[in-house]
Amino acid sequence: MNAEKTDAPRAVIVISSHVARGSVGNRAAVFALETLGFPVWAVPTVILPWHPGHSRATRIVPPLDQFKALMTDLERAPWLGEVRAVLSGYLGEAGQADAVASLVAAVKAKNPGALYVCDPVMGDSGGLYVPEPTAAALRDRLMPIADIGTPNRYELEWMAGAPLPDIKSVTAAALHAGPSTMLITSAPSLMAGGTGNFLLDGSQALLAEHRLIERPPNGLGDLTAAVYLARILSGQPPLKALQSTTAAVYEILARTAKRGGDELQLETDAQSLSHPMAMVQLRHLLHPGRDKRA
Questions:
Q1: Which of 104, 196, 240, 249 could bridge 189 with an S-S bond, Cβ 3.0-4.6 Å?
Q2: Which long-range contacts (CB under 8 A, 24 or more apart) does 245-248 make?
Q3: In this predicted model, what pLDDT tens digit does every residue of 131-140 receive, in sequence order?
Q4: Which of 166, 164, 144, 168 is nearest to 155 (CA)?
Q5: Are 221 and 152 within 8 A, CB to CB?
Q6: Mean of per-residue pLDDT scores for the chain
Q7: How is residue 144 annotated by DSSP?
């Protein structure tokens, strides 16, 4: 990591789900960010015993008035100047989006250079797994104010209202999603039997690919958003951040799959977050802005 002044803002507010067992939501994001050197303020939007994909899981969603009151406390915190970024993920209900947006505004008022990353957790290849009003709140309230959006391809499809079978269609949808930088996970791959992370910003279109691992554990999107944010906050350029993030997440996934784990084993593979050894294929694609100038 690049050396930074000790008094520079370094904290990250992470707002997402909390599970007692597993490595999804805040459990994945907080571990990754703290392992990579960033203090975290963690806010749970819902509390679960485990990911509901495993079995029946009781949901404890904080009453909206109490959630908003807690977020208002954070807005008024005397330590708000410590905060360098906000990362939001899974919402327990649609009304939480307004409180997230208000906190983001407060952080940016205190530190205009702060980043907001919106991971619009709402669905996967099977469709939406949150109520439609919650998905709409992510799309209409939070994505437009984000600096970086990190949907998976299926979430981007829902927000775009159309299937996205190839990189060309993914690119077109990403351009209209809101954030100036989009990192789309589970992107169509140009590699046979592969999958990719596609990064589109104002100057470049990049695709980092690796082989597809069937039936992966949950939490890969949460982990990718957190690791990419940590790389950017550490001063890595987007190309390097994409490559090293993809390598780290893929390496952890592959090692977990080899052990037969049903959850990402972050504590066992923490070294992979800092120094991944996995190889990924990085492609420079034609940027749509350059295409228009041609």
A1: 196
A2: 245/197, 245/208, 246/196, 246/197, 246/208, 246/210, 246/280, 247/208, 247/276, 247/277, 247/278, 247/279, 247/280, 248/272, 248/273, 248/276, 248/278
A3: 999 999 999 9
A4: 164
A5: yes
A6: 91
A7: G
